[in-house]
Inverse folding.
């Protein structure tokens, strides 16, 4: 997992397709992008444009991915994100190839941090994370781009 300021994104040159992510951000007005998925390099790299209001963490699930890393960048608003060790979570759903996620529940050994405007996180395959949480019961609109970076090839 990585948590840093957007001005430092280019330092993480070991993230696959980082240059493409930086070019996408520079060439697009993120505030005018439509909500939904935008392809960048086919299944290897695409971005999810998300606009929402954070929810109570009790309403959300932890998730992991098997094939994709998430590069999550908040451009407006703020949210809490939680992380946990998989050994303290229990699966709530079967793996779904179409969405590349497994959902988990858990309440022990959870860490939380606030991701505000111009901050980003990177979650690699297998790292449990719960984004989109309210912070101190404060809510407001969030604009976030989640770049989905293929790390592990699909076994078809």
């Amino acid at each position: 997992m990585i948590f840093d300021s957007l001005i430092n994104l280019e330092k993480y040159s070991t993230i696959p397709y980082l240059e493409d992510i930086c070019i996408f951000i520079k060439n697009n007005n993120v505030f005018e992008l439509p909500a939904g998925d935008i392809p960048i390099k086919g299944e290897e790299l695409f971005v999810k444009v998300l606009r929402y209001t954070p929810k109570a963490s009790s309403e959300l699930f932890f998730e992991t991915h098997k094939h994709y890393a998430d590069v999550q960048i908040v451009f407006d608003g703020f949210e809490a994100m939680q992380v946990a060790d998989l050994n303290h979570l229990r699966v709530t759903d079967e793996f779904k190839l179409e969405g590349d996620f497994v959902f988990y529940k858990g309440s022990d050994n959870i860490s939380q941090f606030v991701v505000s405007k111009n901050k980003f996180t990177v979650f690699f395959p297998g790292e449990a994370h719960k984004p989109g949480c309210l912070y101190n019961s404060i809510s407001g609109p969030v604009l976030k781009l989640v770049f989905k970076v293929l790390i592990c090839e699909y076994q078809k």
Notes: Helices lie at 18-27.
